[in-house]
Amino acid sequence: MPVQHSQPTLLYHLYCGVTSIIAPFAWRVVRKKLEAAKVPAERQRERLGHASLPRPNGRLIWFHAASVGESLSVLSLITKMGERLPDAEFLITSGTPTSALLIEKRMPPRTRHQYPPLDSADSVRRFLNHWRPDAGIFVESEIWPRLIVESSKRSVALALLNARMSKKSVNGWKKHPQTSSFILAQFRLFLTQNSNTAANLISMGAAADRVQSGTNLKSFSDPLPVDQASLTDIRRQISDRPVWIASSTHAGEEEYVLDAHKELLKRWPDLLLLLIPRHPERRDEISELIRKLGFSYTLRTAKEAISTDTQVYVADTLGETGTWYALCPIVFLGGSLKEIGGHNPFEPAQAGAAIITGPGFFNFAETFAPLISFGGAVEVKTSLDLSHAVAKWLGDPSALADAQAAAQSCVNTQKSQLNSILDSLCKALNLESSGPAVVSNSEFSGKRGD
């Protein structure tokens, strides 16, 4: 059944007017960032709605995500949906160069990537005129009012998947209930990460019969890729030394990690810390901190071998995290010792790791709860807590094996819900299989259009 639109509000019209005025300035900012990331000019213009690929034949299902985590989390879903709908083609849009690079490496069949249009009239119009999607699935909290409303006007069936909203965002929308209700009325289905988000959406004006509480989509992600050649080489360099990993760390967290490592070295003098910063461009800042604290270290990008004297190995690259997780089953996951929200624990869990986290994992509360409850993860608050947690697993292989098994069990339980999510999406968006796959003129051709 088509969405029953409510009337646009004054606030929505005001938003459209303001975005039209500031669009040229927003474009300059966006273009500079893309240029700095060495994105080709042709692809930069995708942000203005100018497609760099032709639209494939047949029906097109469009996924829109914000950045790396959200983008990678839908790739498994696209793969499974593609198996169920062999005639469908897929488009995924994401806003960052990093997400674009990683998506290109793991692209599912019959899928292509573009940068999303700016939320202004001309950019949105060009995008929709070219791609003409049959369904649009927005991931997490990517709420762009004009893109959503204009898509719905063109009878694009819309869903909000893996919905997650901060308390601040919810309170902001509640101050404008008519506009909130109008925007949310464009969606046929909301699949939330947890019951709290479901309740918030209903309180903001979403129709209760369109809201379903689900699970975190990131639990369905495929295991991170492993470069076997690099893995073999690093294992040779490390030899039989004990290792632990601190992954996706942010500014202010490395101090905790290095303090813990200093304590651990008292018991295991040859212990190696493999440090994976969330943002590799912070390498100079991290290097200075390591030097200041008196550790010997090596940077991955320096291409220097790990020697017996190396105490910290900084993996300052993108796309190699899966290889590092394959090295060691003890992973501290950052973004959690500061109020950042945490990161996806299913990535290390799928690699066979037991997980340590700080208390600030609120973006993954529904994910960490069963992991901690069943013993696949432990929570720490201080550097001393962190050193004790690592020491327990380093010193007791049996306890480590139990934690690894518990983490893997939680992953398997979550993955079992994938089919029910697909069922809900296909039913709400009228996505039923209509026959054999259509041969697309752009299926992995690598050719971009005008």
Largest sheet: 7 strands, parallel
User: In which order are the strands of the major sheet placed?
Assistant: 3-2-1-4-5-6-7
Rg, alpha carbons? 23 Å
Number of strands: 14
| Residue fraction in strands | 5-15%
Shape: globular
* Helical stretch tally: 18
Contiguous uncertain segments of 5+ residues: 1-5, 435-450
**Distance between termini?**
36 Å
The computed structural class is alpha/beta
Oligomer classification = single chain
Helix content: 40-55%
Characterization of this structure:
The chain has 450 residues and is α/β, with parallel strands linked by helices. 44% of the residues lie in helices and 14% in strands. The chain is built from 18 helices and 14 strands. Strands 3-2-1-4-5-6-7 form a 7-stranded parallel sheet, with helices on both faces. It has a 7-stranded parallel sheet with strand order 10-11-9-8-12-13-14. α5 packs across α6, α11 crosses α16 and α16 packs across α17. The longest helix is centred in the first third of the chain and has 27 residues. The two termini are 36 Å apart. The N terminus and C terminus are likely disordered.
Task: Lay out the secondary structure.
Layout: H1 10-36, H2 41-44, E1 60-64, H3 68-84, E2 89-93, H4 97-105, E3 111-114, H5 121-131, E4 135-139, H6 145-153, E5 157-163, H7 167-174, H8 177-184, E6 189-192, H9 195-203, E7 211-213, H10 228-238, E8 243-249, H11 254-265, E9 272-277, H12 283-292, E10 297-299, E11 312-314, H13 321-325, E12 330-333, H14 346-350, E13 354-357, H15 365-374, E14 377-379, H16 383-395, H17 397-415, H18 418-428
Helix pairs in contact: 3-4, 5-6, 11-16, 16-17
